[in-house]
């Protein structure tokens, strides 16, 4: 899992988040886009990330801590605490 700091803020890719909570990435992309309609969700950054050992890339979102927690809660409520714990580790 790649740990990123953007402007001193801890961030995680949606791809890493979906791997962590066991959710299909494509479905998660749609949920994130739904959440992003709400202005309080903040700005989304779409990036390309390598997803396998062959160097293939996919489009995903770069999420800050608040966004990652919101997405994790929306995608899999039973694993919300796992997401919170992981984001705290990254800080």
Topology, element by element:
Elements: E1 4-6, E2 9-13, H1 14-21, H2 25-35, E3 45-50, E4 57-64, H3 65-75, H4 80-90
Antiparallel strand pairs: 1-2, 2-4, 3-4
Sum this structure up briefly.
With 91 residues, this protein is α+β, with helices and mostly antiparallel strands. It is built from four helices and four strands, in the order E-E-H-H-E-E-H-H. A hairpin with a 2-residue loop joins strand 1 and strand 2.
Provide an overview of this structure.
With 91 residues, the protein is an alpha+beta fold. It is 45% helix and 24% strand. It contains 4 helices and 4 strands. The protein has helices at residues 14-21, 25-35, 65-75, 80-90; strands at residues 4-6, 9-13, 45-50, 57-64. A 4-stranded antiparallel beta sheet has the order 1-2-4-3. Strand 1 (4-6) and strand 2 (9-13) form a beta hairpin. Helix 2 (25-35) packs across helix 3 (65-75). 23% of the residues are buried.
